[in-house]
Amino acid sequence: MTQINPKTVTADERGVIRIYGIDLPADQIQLFAERPQTGGDDPWPLRASLGVTADLNEDSIEIVDVEALGEIGLAGYLTLGNGVAPADVEPYRELLTGVQGHVAIVFSSAFKGAAQTLSPAPPLRFIAAFREEGAPVTFEALPDDSAKGTLSDAPRKKPVSDAAMSGRVATIALLVMALLVWLMIKIAG
């Protein structure tokens, strides 16, 4: 796993998952996590605690009650539910197993492609950051010979025959003569 800077979000960041513990009583979690619907200057406590000023995509932030995960636990939720490689989670398994209460899982898409510097403040407590496991990319030759193609054997446009060229010249000449006849009739008439 490549090192992830938990406080820096780059504009092109994709696939990073940051986990924050929320040190609040269970009855205050909803008020902390939900964006106010007043439309005024009411701050969103979660955004303020992350230390960001830009808008966040609330659909890319999950608030999870760790106890509700049961036997799967937070480590299992990250690997099975969010595509983090088990090998990346393993060094943090003891830490993740010890987490209690609620956590905020913040995905890269929450920042809407805006570069940010995070400065988490209570009640948020940084736990860990992981990268989603991507499918391995390989570039192999296609198996069928027809996929290779050949540019040199591409059909060429055949040259215009002398008869076709003569027909075009004759058509243009007839149109010019017809235009001259019409012009003479207009002038004489």
Structure overview:
The protein is an alpha+beta fold. It has a domain at 8-131. It is 30% helix and 16% strand. The protein contains six helices and six strands, in the order ββααβαααβββα. The strands form two sheets. It has a four-stranded antiparallel sheet with strand order 3-4-2-6. Strands 1-5 form a two-stranded antiparallel sheet. The longest helix is centred in the last third of the chain and has 27 residues, at 162-188. The chain is elongated, with a radius of gyration of 34 Å. The mean pLDDT is 86.
Summarize the helices and strands and which ones pair or pack:
Elements: E1 8-9, E2 16-22, H1 29-33, H2 45-50, E3 61-65, H3 73-82, H4 86-89, H5 93-97, E4 102-107, E5 116-117, E6 124-131, H6 162-188
Antiparallel strand pairs: 1-5, 2-4, 2-6, 3-4
Sum this structure up briefly.
With 189 residues, the protein is α+β, with helices and mostly antiparallel strands. It is built from six helices and six strands; from the N terminus they run E-E-H-H-E-H-H-H-E-E-E-H.
Strand ordering within the main sheet: 3-4-2-6
Distance between the termini: 92 Å
**Nearest-angstrom radius of gyration?**
34 Å
**Mean pLDDT metric:** 86
How would you spell out the order of helices and strands? EEHHEHHHEEEH
Shape: elongated
Given the structure, what is the number of helices?
Answer: 6
- Largest sheet data: 4 strands, antiparallel
Helix/strand/pairing category: alpha+beta
Instruction: Please bin the fraction of helical residues.
Output: 25-40%
Oligomer: single chain
Low-confidence stretches: none
Name the beta content range.
15-25%
Number of strands: 6
